[in-house]
Write a structure and sequence with these properties.
- The protein folds into five domains: 5-102, MurE/MurF, N-terminal domain (Udp-n-acetylmuramoylalanyl-d-glutamate--2,6- Diaminopimelate Ligase, Chain: A, domain 1, 3-Layer(aba) Sandwich); 112-324, UDP-N-acetylmuramoyl-L-alanine:D-glutamate ligase (3-Layer(aba) Sandwich); 333-490, Protein-Tyrosine Phosphatase, Chain A (Alpha-Beta Complex), CATH 3.90.190.20; 497-522 and 534-544 and 554-720, Alpha-Beta Barrel (TIM Barrel); 737-863, Lyase, Ornithine Decarboxylase, Chain A, domain 1 (Beta Barrel).
- The protein contains 27 helices and 40 strands.
- The strands form six sheets. The chain has a nine-stranded mixed β-sheet, sandwiched between helices. It has an eight-stranded parallel β-sheet with strand order 30-29-28-27-26-25-24-31.
- Helix 22 links the parallel strand 27 (586-590) and strand 28.
- Mean pLDDT is 89; it is low at 425-436.
- The structure holds pyridoxal-5'-phosphate.
- Pyridoxal-5'-phosphate binds next to helix 25.
- It holds the Pfam family Ala_racemase_N.
- InterPro entries: Ala_racemase (IPR000821), Ala_racemase/Decarboxylase_C (IPR009006), Ala_racemase_C (IPR011079), Ala_racemase_N (IPR001608), Mur-like_cat_sf (IPR036565), Mur_ligase_C_dom_sf (IPR036615), Mur_ligase_cen (IPR013221), Mur_ligase_N (IPR000713).
Amino acid sequence: MPFPLFRTLPALLGGRLLQAPADAATEARHLLLDSRRVGLPAGAVFFALRGPSHDGHRYLPELYAQGVRLFVVEENAALPGGLGAYPGAGLLAVLSPLAALQALAAAHRAEFAGPVLAITGSNGKTIVKEWLAQLLSPDEDICRSPRSYNSQVGVPLSVWELNPVRHTLGIFEAGISEAGEMARLAAIIQPTEGLFTTFGTAHDAGFASPEQKLREKLQLFTGPQLQRLFYCADQAPVRSAVAELKIPGFTWTRQPEQPADLHFTLEAAAAGTTRLHAKYPAASLMSEFTLPFADEPSLENALHCLAVLLHRQVEPAEIQRRLLRLHPVAMRLEMKPGRHGSYLLDDTYNNDLAGLALALNALARQSRPGRRTLILSDVLESGLSRAELYARVAALLPAAGVSRLVGIGEEISQLKVETEELRGSTSAIGSIEAAGQLLTPNAQLLTEFYPSTEAFLAQLNPADFAQETILIKGARRFGFERIVAALQAQQHGTVLEVNLDALSHNLQHYRRQLRPGTKLMVMVKAFAYGAGSYEVASLLEFQRADYLAVAYADEGIALREAGISLPIMVMNAAPDSFDLLRRYRLEPEIYSFEMLDEYLATFESPASHFPLPTPRIHLKLDTGMRRLGFDEADLPALLARLRPHAAHLPVASLMTHLAAADEPAHDDFTQTQLSTFRRMAAAIEAALGHAVLKHALNSAGILRFPDAQFDMVRLGIGLYGVDASNTADPAALRPVSQLRTTISQIKTLPAGHTVGYGRRGQASSGERRIATLAIGYADGYDRRFGNGAGTVLIHGQPAPLVGSVCMDMCMVDVTDIPLARAGDVALVFGEGLPLPALAARIGTIAYELLTNVSERVKRVFVSE
Ligand SMILES: *Cc1c(COP(=O)(O)O)cnc(C)c1O
């Protein structure tokens, strides 16, 4: 496949070659946006993107050290170390590296002569894309976007994978969040066919109105090369907008009177299946199909796919065969504790090269010390020889730090044989040489191979994986869920599911509120508000937060031992020695003269047995909270203590905490706090002779006092999806945590009988069905929810608490939920049971409910 020479890029993209690469024949082969994902440095071009809280130029030295030699940077950007720091590298300066990335992908797309289908819409894009790929794969060699890579950077990366020689069809999804974005995606994808899923009318912050959003989305389909747009004619706004934009359509409908190319009628059939009658008058075709599901979203998604298949005139019998093999698209990555101190990443997304690369990225992000292991089945990728396929797999492993590979399957096991042949022979040739790379790029890689999952399970001893971080990645038919079950720690019925995508979403929401350059400290005290400190901290490190904060040194030490390297502030380090803080690079908040004196004493007599620097400190100023910190009246004494050390005292920041940032009634008080803080900070900075980082705002403050961001803010509960200030658009934050338990048993209670301790729950009005749930106050489920104050959701229906909450269980009334059975899931909080409303019922706040979930409740971390 022809890749452009790097030195020809100015002609293609514009811009100025700051330095030609030493090797004039260097091709631009891989696009690289993230310094943590260097796979193959040879031929990788790094695009230095800049965002509100991110500047790709900072990572140039790190990338250069890793062997990357091609860079596209912003015109006039300061290059760390200057041009001289990058001998032999090629550097191109352009006005916008993002625009250059997109233009390069567009030029690459233009090399492909085959059909390209673009998908957009409010819901179902990813599933429809994945299903179409499943349904069409017998006929086509398809290049498609991995997962939901549909953004301004995701689309160029996806399109870059199109191979004009090999692929026969491209399927790409496009998603936008602001006006003006779709035209850019259309120029990259240049679709010859389009598919519009659904039009959701939910309010969207990036658009003036839903109509504007719809028109913007349809921009994807207005190019001259577009032959047809597949869409459902039952949504009137879509119909009229498509007509107005003169987009050629191919339509389907479920309404008998609606004119359309295809008419579908659905009818419920045997357990969980649906009968479908399809009429395609133009091809004088009438056929019936059985769909292997009954839920509305799946039916809708399947009809979109059927329209494409019928238009291509695939034989109905063949369509039916493929439909029955359609499987739900699992797009979750679950992270959970394993047995013997191991930690599992269970990724159920497709095991092709793109899916494997994404899963390995997730592994690369883990900071846990210890060995990293990959349990991998045969990789499914049509069109590549085994040797080439596994050479590519091998190239992905070092960047993720994999040092042990367990290969399961007939194909992958062949590598063992081939590698042994290779080692035995003196001439390494052809395909054997390529396959052998699976073992040779990293001499430290331990490998073991099994022909089947059964063969692996038969000899499995979970202790052999003690302390390892294990990525489990298998194609569906290998049934790797059995391996996960064997390796995971025992789970009792109650689970706190933490959605890491929602967490990232909330982080970005708060970041958007910050002025450029404002730093972000994130509070991960109290086990990250109950969510799990290591996983949250690890995500924050990946998302490049600037600081973490914990309440006690113990919490900071646990993070360090789990491999977290961000700076960590400790709010209440009082009884701990500075040596301990020093050893773990923890930075104490100093809030009293006693602490300051103790610190200064250590500082003056540098402990010779500790060659590490004295910890940096944060001075806490009390401006009205009346909890911890130096008062304004203390200022003269404080300045007198600081002055003699002004030149070298490592003061990392000055901070204060607002008492009522979330309450408009106290805004005058808050303003007084802020002006006191400004005054005190100015005096301290004058005494020290230099400026210091200043910060005051918590989550509510970030939203309500944008003028008081100073140099940094301290995000807390907002990250976990709770808006303490009630000012955010309710749709702006996503709930992060979901607490679930299961029904242990159901009993029928005759009228007049009582339930539980103290006989407080009484069945008064006739016979009741009572379910016992596997959660009690020892799990953190508050006793105040007893006797009707609380409800849980079972099958989406509310079930009120009956009787008192016990230590390990509680009872709910399920008389009105006849479907409820032992083993069913009961939702305690999460989607449908928002924390603030639940908290209000028992007179507390969301903070308490979150942090009360006890450590014995297993945390499972998911991302999509
Ligand atoms: C907990 C805490 C925060 C974060 O508060 P939220 O209301 O959760 O945003 C900020 N600053 C300090 C000093 C804190 O203790």
